[in-house]
Amino acid sequence: MTDESQKRIEELREAAKPCFQCGICSSSCPVFRVAPEVNPRLAIDAVVSTGELTEEGNEWLCAYCLMCDQRCPMGVSLTDILIGLKNLSAAEGNAPFNITKAVESFFTIGVIAPGTTGVERKRNKLGLPEIPKPDPEQIKILFEGTGGLEILEKNLAKESLAE
Ligand code: SF4
Ligand code: SF4
Predict the structure, then answer these.
(1) Which residues contact 24 (CB under 8 A, 6 or more apart)?
(2) Ligand 2 centroid vs 24 CA: distance in angstroms?
(3) Which domains, ranges and CATH numbers included, belong to the chain?
(4) Is 44 in the pocket of ligand 1 (CB under 6 A)?
(5) What pLDDT digit, counting tens, does each position of 106-135 carry?
(6) What is the reported pTM?
(7) Minimum-distance ligand to the CA of 34?
(8) Which of 2, 44, 127, 160 is buried most, with the most CB atoms less than 10 Å from its CB?
(9) Does the beta carbon of 40 sit less than 6 angstroms from any atom of ligand 2?
(10) Of all residues in the chain, what percent carry a pLDDT higher than 70?
């Protein structure tokens, strides 16, 4: 892990410290109900006690519904922490395959899932305007300016090594 990532994880650790493990976040989490491995309370506990990224990568399954943030009695923003963990994991080249492919598609064609002619027909029928076409040059600037391109390349390189 780079020094920068280590520093960021320390910041996340500080943000998680007010947590007293009441479990309200987990009992409020709709993902936890169907996938108990996504346990926000334990994710926070892992960050505070180990100061390391979890190997399971369950933070990627968070649906970002914000229920945990709204209900936490200590005002801990779990979603900020989970997003921070995702960013760190991606920066290390450990983003899940489907996420890497979605980001690659966005970088290449400007969307994650291209619209179909069926969707266009329906929009026409409803009198909706044509969906604007993304400008690949703007997307390139965005990726280069934010360091996103480097992170995408790192994750793609890891995927090709794993094949
Ligand atoms: S609701 Fe807040 S205090 Fe309770 S376990 Fe979750 S993060 Fe910790
Ligand atoms: S934001 Fe994520 S972790 Fe929090 S309740 Fe929603 S799905 Fe669960």
Answers:
(1) 68, 71, 72, 73
(2) 11
(3) 3-91 (1.10.1060.10), 97-162 (no CATH)
(4) yes
(5) 999 888 888 889 989 999 999 999 888 889
(6) 0.82
(7) 2
(8) 44
(9) yes
(10) 94
